[in-house]
Amino acid sequence: MLDRLALRLVKPAVELAARQLARRGISAEQVTLAGFCFGLLAAVAVALGFSLLALLPLLLNRTLDGVDGALARLTTPTERGAFLDIALDFVFYAAIPLAFAIQDPGANALAAAVLLASFVATGTSFLAFAVMAEKRGLKSTDFPSKSFYYLGGLTEGTETILCFAAMCLWPQHFAIIALVYATLCAVTAATRLAAGWTLFS
Fold it and tell me: Which are the contacts of 126, defined by CB distance < 8 A and separation ≥ 6?
């Protein structure tokens, strides 16, 4: 829901960073992999009980996730780069709830499982829609710079990062935050399924 606004706000800074990296010969795929490593570092920090410290690598992960696409557009976008970008994003999204479950299984495991199930629903509906849209040659007017059809919803990347940040700031309330966000993800999955049912009928 907030991705379009967030992308507009950070676009100048992201494009500046991408130009600087391009001048140094750094590739978009290298940036993607570096961002993923920061994401895993955030998950490890959470699992070890250092939730507040996880905020910095978590934000670096999301920053580099924006920069890699801008860098790819400045150089040569590749199918491998687009594949890595989306695949590693989903691994990162799963790693954070799992880390909270590891941190405190008794308090967090059930809520983490519910949240991960909701991520499966939003992720599969998102990717299935993108595959069918590609077969029909459809392009997203809301996110024209994306390498595939990006179907938005109530919970997008921006909302997910805000959710993860809240979990890191208030880990004692992880279960409540996770269950509320899982409910919102379920709404997103339902709207995406409805969109696919209508458009691909």
Answer: 151, 153, 192
